[in-house]
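Possible regression after last week's pipeline update?

I re-ran a chain I had predicted before the update to compare outputs. Posting the input and the new output here so someone can diff against the archived version. Not blocking, just want to make sure nothing changed silently.
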Amino acid sequence: AISLSLLGKKVVIVGLDIRKPGLNKVFQLSNKERGITQYLSNPETDLMELVQSSDVNKNLFILPGGTVPPNPTELLARNGLDRAIETLKKNFDYVILDTAPIGMVTDTLLIGRVADLSVYVCRADYTHKAEYTLINELSFEKKLPNLCTVINGVDLKKRKYGYYYGYGKYGKHYGYGKRYGYGYGYGQDTKR
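New output (post-update):
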């Protein structure tokens, strides 16, 4: 979301992990009561008044989760969510939905109906291998639209094979510098 906003795109992040909202903490927002749950509980609420600007840059906006409701699954199943996303799509270039981890609750599968693309974020050396099986099942059964996977938190220093791409390493191991070659390990000295 931040990368898109830095490219000049108007972006809103919607906190749809409404059982355990976390965007207020991440973006240091003070008003924890106002958010998407207020709109979902009362569709007469002006959705755009709940959207907050961020301190990151002028193009990034946040629609936090709001007050934790007693009936989160019911709220997300209503067509108010569909209307909210349509309104946001008219006002922003990108609408990014931050959801609960899949497999924990059914909420994310309910939210999938309003998404154009689903991104499953995994952390290297942390996400359990069984979760990758779940990703394959979700993709095969088409339970989430256009399912993609992002693996973050990769420690390139721990990787011993494969191509050696990465910021700060370019020129040292790929293409330029004293060890010219096409991949990690190509042309390496045996002594280190």
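Follow-up from reviewer: compared with the archived run. The chain has a mean pLDDT of 83. Marking as no regression found.
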